Amino acid sequence: MSDLFRLTIEDAADLLARREISAVELTSAHLDRIATHDTRLNSFITVTADHALAQARAADNELARGARRSPLHGIPIALKDLYDTAGVRTTAGATFFAERMPDVDARAVTLLYQAGAVLLGKLNMHEWALGVTNINPHYGPSRNPWDTSRITGGSSGGAAAALAAGLCMGALGSDTGGSIRIPASLCGIVGFKPTFGRVSLQGVVPLSWNLDHAGPMARTVTDAALLLQAIAGYDPDDPVSVAAPVDDLLASIDAGVGGWRIALADDAHFGNADAEVLASVHRAAGVFEELGARVERVDLGRGQDAAQMNALMTTSDAAAFHRDRLRAHPEQFGADVRMRLERGAAFTSTEYILARRFQSEWRRQLERLFEQFDVLLTPTTPITALPIEGLDSVEAARQLTRCTAPFNLAGLPALSAPCGMSAAGLPIGLQIVAAPWREAHVLRAGKAFERATSWHRQTPPGW
Questions:
Q1: Which of 43, 155, 208, 280 is catalytic?
Q2: Which of 61, 71, 407, 426 could form a disulfide with 384 if both were Cys (CB 3.0 to 4.6 A apart)?
Q3: Contact yes or no for 191/173 (Cβ under 8 A)
Q4: How far is CA 362 from the centre of its chain?
Q5: Which tens digits make up the pLDDT trace of 61-117?
Q6: Where are the transmembrane segments (predicted)?
Q7: Dist. CA 309–CA 406, nearest whole Å
Q8: How far apart are CA 375 and CA 372, in angstroms?
Q9: How far apart are CA 445 and CA 102, in angstroms?
Q10: Cis peptide leading into 185, omega within 30 of 0?
Q11: Does the annotation mark 80 as catalytic?
């Protein structure tokens, strides 16, 4: 079969189960794509070809015996390079960890391996995950397949580029202020940040102990659900993991949104976006109405404050984690990351405590909102992908996290799905948010929108 790289996880899983394709064929097709195209995208830091083929052969042997582990069995995926992988270097996009070789896998990686997934390699990212452009001074910038002169977004930018260009079938990213959803929006894929505490952070290099979320990235909502189903759950070795029941995320994913009450953010903060972005999001809201939902505009009121408090906590927490490195070797950090770390270190304890108090108030405000509404719609990013050349990564972070960071602060599940294209041919993302632990609700809304539209089928020209 040609064009194996264009298959969804869902479709490839069915073909693998029926033995119409092999895991080795599927993995080889993606390794060939990486070898041929990643010189243009720079989406991978490390490619694990031998490891991947060994896993694929093992998967084929098990599938031939009828020992299918999960729908991910034999599926080639990749990991943002801050997930620890035993025997495979994990750099976090930094020179400090350039040769770091973990002894054990991150918990989420272990769960993927138990599900039978195949690891193609480790993906490029913004240095230490502290930024959203993926312009990495040490490993080079990742480039957007829709226009290679433009950013992918970040910090999980390598994942978004690789998925959009067919270099992997699924990926894990991390999200502290939007780092899964921003690159998903800019590259036209699906990115899902689950509820804080839903997926273990054990073995994930931290940015903020209080705001980090691990989650899936894929080309469709169903594929994201399959990945999340494999990695969600309580981990006693992660101090912020929560022992909340995990739903069957596929059980109601096709049930639609008929009769739902949906909020559309319509205020000075979330409405401060390019006209093309707003038009696409409003058209998306219209699709939900056509599907039988009632859409109402709401003023969230304090979104700007929430984004600012998230930035304060992120940089303060990061400065605490990097305090020894920042003191001993400041020159080894990229200029934008060093600037943000120094800014974080300068915040006072009073400022941090006030941010934590605001976090509690903001979370309660949104919980009350979701007593009335099933989901909330906003733009994922207020703008489309910016040019790499001459870009100020610090200013870009302020712009690009505008709509995503408030939901990191609240710890709510939030998904980005493609909902349009700009006149310049660049993807636009729709953000769907729900109450804590309502991942199944978010996925159900996303799947309903995806079935009614064709944006997820768009592929970058020439790829």
A1: 155
A2: 426
A3: yes
A4: 23
A5: 999 999 999 999 999 999 999 999 999 999 999 999 999 999 999 999 999 999 999
A6: none
A7: 8
A8: 9
A9: 38
A10: no
A11: yes
Q: Which of 22, 80, 156, 185 does the annotation list as catalytic?
A: 80
Tell if the pTM clears 0.85, that is, is over it. Answer: yes
**Annotated catalytic residue within 179, 185, 241, 393:** 179
Tokens of 118: 């195949």
Give the tokens for residue 276. Answer: 């093309």
Pair of tokens at residue 50: 């031998």
Domains and CATH numbers, the chain: 4-457 (3.90.1300.10)
